[in-house]
Amino acid sequence: MRVIAEDGEQLGILPTSKALQRAIDVELDLVEVAPNATPPVCRIMDFGKYQYEKSKKEKEGKKKQHQVTVKEIRMRPKTDTHDLETKLKQARKFLEHRNKVKFTVIFRGRELAYKDMGRDLLERVVETLEEISEIETPIKMEGRRMTMMLGSKVT
Predict the structure, then answer these.
(1) CA of 49: how far to CAs of 28, 52, 66, in Å?
(2) Where among 10, 36, 62 does a domain terminate?
(3) Domain boundary residue among 62, 82, 108?
């Protein structure tokens, strides 16, 4: 097998026993780096330190990515204007953090006869948030719920 020393120097092709003895002498591990190569390549290194640095790099990479989550805001067709403003302020905050916001209007009992009130409410939401959001899923009726999904505009 081809052996690479701890300082990166190539030791050449050595039998497994000699490579292992060399690793034991310097109190490090013999790690197979490229098993499919001919001959296989092994490196003398501190395997625990290697794993630790690898996990640190993975954590650093994860810090830079943003997970998009769906936040849901529920309303009723007779939601008052002040309550709506509060919910829109919260939705604006979600959209600024690049999350998707699902607006749901829930109809109870005889409110189902006033679907147009729910649609008007959702259209008012779209008008208010149009400068920072775009419609991802248009308004649709699902049983007793009217839903719509907004996503933040890419800037």
Answers:
(1) 10, 5, 28
(2) 62
(3) 62
Q: Which residues, other chains included, contact 36 with Cβ-Cβ below 8 Å and sequence gap of 6+?
A: none
- Sequential pLDDT tens for the chain (155 residues): 888 888 888 888 888 888 888 889 888 998 888 888 888 999 999 989 889 998 999 888 888 777 788 999 999 999 899 999 999 999 999 999 889 999 999 999 999 998 999 999 999 999 999 899 999 999 999 999 999 999 988 65
| Co-location of 81 and 142 in the same domain | yes
Number of domains composing the chain = 2
Question: What pTM did the predictor assign?
Answer: 0.60
**CA-only gyration radius of the chain, Å:** 30
CB 23 within 8 A of CB 29: yes
- Inter-residue contact 24 to 44 (CB < 8 Å): no
